[in-house]
Amino acid sequence: MHADIIGDVHGCYDELLALFKKLGYDIENGIPHHPEGRKPIFIGDITDRGPHSLKTVELVYDMVIKKKIADYVPGNHCNKLYRYFLGNKVQVKHGLETTVAEYESLAANKQMEIKDKFTTLYEQAPLYLVLPELQAIIAHAGIREDLIGRQDKKTATFVLYGDITGEKHEDGRPVRRDWAQDYKGANWIVYGHTPVKQPRVVNKTINIDTGCVFGNQLTAFRLPEETTESVPSDQPYVEEKFSYFD
């Protein structure tokens, strides 16, 4: 198995297609295919904040559910959009408002189609992926070694939100422990969630959310090669959104 794990897209559809092209994929009828059969894996947070969340949903749905040529694990923004589509009471802010605005601009039949596609995508997704053949675990915000193999609420919270303490910084960001510093495992843990300016490798973990939606770049981590590829963002650069970890 050869895989290309793609960091948080956040509706940056044009950059996603540019990344696929840089990775050697052919775009046929709007769907990326790699001539050597490499498998893309989306690391979550495919929507919100960026300009084309719904086009991104449709592309990921087609690749994962319809064509079965890609995998996807959900992120916290995916979880919130899912709860919104279920009719749960969620706050339409922190990026969700951009996806909802796109959604509300659609005709009723198209709204139903998008809702069905995303709901199916989310409900069929694993919380995280364990890939023994690549010696890798793919989890949106990472996973602590003692949680690997578990599917309980504590694990779900960690995978979706990171190692949060329950406290908040003055600017409203949640306080997170730098769990990667304590990881001693032999498998790669590939994650995103917290924007960093360059892919961040700590022990055998790599954060590939390089803040495309905040104007930096969109990154993929290639296995088994253990290499990264990135394309520049078309979005405005927002310095303060990047990680406070070194």
From TrEMBL:
Q: Which residues form the Calcineurin-like phosphoesterase domain?
A: 4-196
Q: Which catalytic reaction applies to this protein? A: P(1),P(4)-bis(5'-guanosyl) tetraphosphate + H2O = GMP + GTP + 2 H(+)
Keywords attached to this Swiss-Prot or TrEMBL record, sorted alphabetically, are: GTP-binding, Hydrolase, Nickel, Nucleotide-binding
Tell me one GO molecular function of this protein: nickel cation binding
The record's Gene Ontology cellular component field reads: cytoplasm
What EC number is given for this enzyme? 3.6.1.17
**Family recorded in the similarity comment:** Belongs to the PrpE family.
Q: What does this protein do?
A: Asymmetrically hydrolyzes Ap4p to yield AMP and ATP.
Name under which the protein is recorded: Bis(5'-nucleosyl)-tetraphosphatase PrpE [asymmetrical]
Q: Which organism is it from?
A: Paraliobacillus ryukyuensis
